[in-house]
Model the fold of this input.
Amino acid sequence: MLKRNKISTFLFIFAIYTLPFLSTQPTKISLANAENLEKQGKTEQALIIYEEWLKINKNDPQVYNILNRISELEKNPFRILDIFIEYTPAVKDPYKKSKLYKEIALLWEMLGRIESALDYYKLAYKDLKYSDKDVSLLNLAKLFIEQGLLIEAENWIKMIINQIKDKEILAESYYLLAEIYTSLNKLSIAHSYLILIKNQYPHTYTYPKCLLHLLQIYIINSNKEKIELIFSELEEKYTNTPEYELALSLINKNKTGYTFFLPSPHRLIGTEDILTSDTNKKVDDNKAHTEEPESEETQLVFIQVGSYTMRENAEYMVKELIEKGFEARIVNKKISGTLYYRVVVGKPSSEDKAQILMLKLKGEGYEGYLISAEL
Done:
């Protein structure tokens, strides 16, 4: 018995002195090994070591750097999301944490999970002083608009305007406000924001779509003099742009109805009536497909690449997609009393198949977003 007690005491003392060494030493070895494996091109093995390091060093100041390394090495967005979501809350620096939350939001948005993206944008931009001063600040506002949360969008945009000095961000912010008021049929307010852009931000990326938006308002108001001035500027400066093509279409058709242009494809959530939409009108009788989707059992996920209040815009997008070999069609969706023409690519499919198609779309320069009855 005495011998057994001595052995137990020895093991206890041995554990006290060796456990701290065992718990800290692998950390240094693991990171060094991971870096060496990276240099040898053994990315997957390096990633495994980085993940193992994170599990035992959640509170280490290097967590942020290791997460960035994983983001650069890992090709699977779902794996990146799992890792970032687990370890970002442990990052102490508010600025770094904000950047990581933004990465998570961007990944969710890329994968079409708009509600999840919205949640993480809110976390990323909880305090503007910790946020990157780039145009992605407006992503949250766009998602608010797309979900019909116009008051939240307006408040967020005005907060950005009060704190940001960058001309590109300011021009886009004022344009989004013009979109909000146009959707509410308050054209005079929308017009004032567009004129502000025209006068103060003529050399920004927002300027061409600002001109198109103004043109449409002047067509609605039958202001021939302004129509000629705006169209002449588009024709002179932006001949090889979608904005000019759409302007030309408006002029040729003498459009007088209520329309406005959404410049970048907006994703509008909610698909409960996607199958009952009026999709019979074809852009190209030989190519455009508007057939009903497959049976209800296969109605899993759609890919949306654009949503417009002006059918000509949607038709232009569908025609362009078909010319590049994609199966595209238009479906209708009414949100907050406004009818939107949504451009959908492909047939209903599983999320895995949709992700493959989205990668092909991105390869051609298009942004695709999943829409499903679950969102």
User: Anything to note?
Assistant: Residues 111 and 355 are 7 Å apart (CA to CA). The chain is about 60% helix and 10% strand. The two ends are 67 Å apart (CA to CA).
